[in-house]
Write a structure and sequence with these properties.
single chain; mainly alpha
């Protein structure tokens, strides 16, 4: 009678140990995955800010180029004896300035769109972290249930062995 009791106790201890180790492994895996996702979120914030900064730099540079072209147009028009601010000559310079403003606005808008796409990756990482936490909690519950089932089966087997 002692042998079935020893075997049942040994099996129970191994089941408890295995269950505990599986839960620890799940938690360690969760922490590793979430650390990677936290890093991804931080990097996405930096990259989004960089996209905005680059867009702003490009927009300022484009604005300078447009003002230079408009100045060159004024100088060329005046050098040819035309009044710069009248009629077609004035319209030409105004069109250059207005289309330049459109270019500058487009550069800024494109930078904001790039930043939003990058930030979406950071938001996705935050959502994935929450999903990982939920998944690990369910895995741990399943591990505990499996461990409890094994314990019940071991107890049942011991009962049958001793009570025939």
């Amino acid at each position: 009678m002692a042998l079935p009791l020893i075997l049942a106790a040994g099996g129970t201890l191994l089941t408890l140990y295995g269950t505990n180790q599986q839960i620890k492994a799940n938690e360690a895996n969760l922490e590793f995955q979430n650390e990677q996702l936290r890093h991804k979120r931080e990097v996405s914030k930096v990259m989004a800010a960089d996209a905005i900064e680059r867009g702003e730099r490009n927009a300022r540079a484009q604005g300078r180029k447009v003002r230079q072209v408009a100045g060159q147009q004024r100088a060329a028009i005046a050098a040819n004896g035309f009044v710069v601010d009248q009629d077609t000559a004035g319209d030409l310079v105004d069109d250059t300035i207005n289309w330049g403003k459109v270019d500058v606005a487009m550069l800024r808008a494109n930078a904001r769109m790039e930043a939003l796409q990058i930030e979406a990756g950071g938001t996705e990482a935050a959502i994935q972290m929450r999903m990982n936490e939920t998944s690990t909690a369910y895995q741990n519950q399943a591990t505990l249930i499996n461990g409890a089932t094994s314990l019940i089966n071991a107890g049942n087997n011991y009962y049958r062995a001793t009570n025939g």
